[in-house]
Design brief:
The chain is an alpha/beta fold. Helices cover 45% and strands 12% of the residues.
């Protein structure tokens, strides 16, 4: 495996980087010394690697239907794609990856499918917990705990406890999650603090609301990827993706691999992020 600057000092490629990219590379390696963005994506400057990627993993059912398989087979294939995405994001130096795994609306699906999804969740937690610790990955989950099966909550708490001292990249699963519900819960929490005299109404600003969201402490996603070609947000991280770049791919989630992630990041890197302003040459 190629060595990184964290191991043997800067190489020729790193010396040729701009000051901005050298700073970005140092930040990446501080979080994950095993990251190799210059090896994995040599055509993308380190400063253009997204710090936080959010993915709407769509197309499991369609993938299964095309193959004459039950929907649960598509979800199982999708779980393999999750591992591939987590591994490649780590190699690229992505600091946080948030995956839309199960929405509040998904409870409307057939009972058999819900049971299959919950079984996969339990299997993933048990199988990946040791690997997360081994690779110094911090695990988080966003979404309401209420409504999840007791065995799911037990496995979740074990994984949170096992990775609480990890200092590397963050893997975040959105389970039993809906963005409107998340914002509603945040407003309720703020209202309680105001009612108890802990917070003045005039002190409520964007930072205060962000601090009460499930994602508090994580940077907002730089890039939102949606698979299976659907052109909608599906009640996902509505507050957090205000200025995220969007990338939609026709690839079904079970078929999503490193080359598709690379394509999304190249697309992201080619764009100019204005955050509501204008390019210098436009002013």
């Amino acid at each position: 495996m190629p060595t990184t600057s964290a191991q043997n000092g800067p190489n020729a490629a790193e010396i040729a980087l701009s000051a901005e990219d050298q700073s970005a590379l140092r930040r990446i390696l501080a979080v994950n010394p095993r990251a190799e963005p210059l090896v994995r994506l040599p055509d993308v400057p380190p400063s253009r690697i997204p710090r936080h990627i959010a993915i709407i993993m769509d197309g499991n059912g369609r993938w299964a239907k095309e193959r004459g398989l039950p929907r649960r087979a598509g979800h199982k294939a999708g779980a393999l794609a999750v591992r591939a995405a987590v591994e490649e994001c780590g190699k690229l130096g992505v600091e946080a990856l948030t995956l839309y795994s199960f929405s509040l609306e998904n409870w409307k699906r057939p009972r058999e499918e819900i049971e299959a999804l919950m079984a996969l969740y339990l299997e993933y937690m048990r199988a990946e917990r040791e690997l997360l610790v081994k690779h110094n990955m911090r695990f988080r989950q966003i979404g309401r705990r209420e409504g999840l099966p007791p065995e799911a909550l037990a496995e979740l708490d074990l994984t949170l406890e096992a990775t609480k001292n990890c200092t590397g990249p963050t893997l975040c699963l959105a389970v039993n999650y809906g963005s409107r519900a998340e914002i509603t819960d945040a407003v309720r929490a703020i209202a309680r603090r105001v009612a108890q005299g802990e917070l003045a109404p005039e002190a409520i600003d964007e930072a205060a609301l962000s601090a009460h969201l499930d994602t508090a402490g994580l940077p907002d996603p730089d890039l939102l990827i949606r698979t299976a070609g659907e052109m909608r947000i599906s009640n996902y991280l509505l507050w957090q993706i205000s200025y995220s770049e969007l990338h939609v791919t026709p690839t079904l989630w079970p078929d999503f691999r490193a080359e598709h992630l690379h394509a999304a990041i190249r697309d992201f890197a080619s764009r100019r992020r204005r955050f509501g302003g204008l390019d210098a040459e436009t002013v």
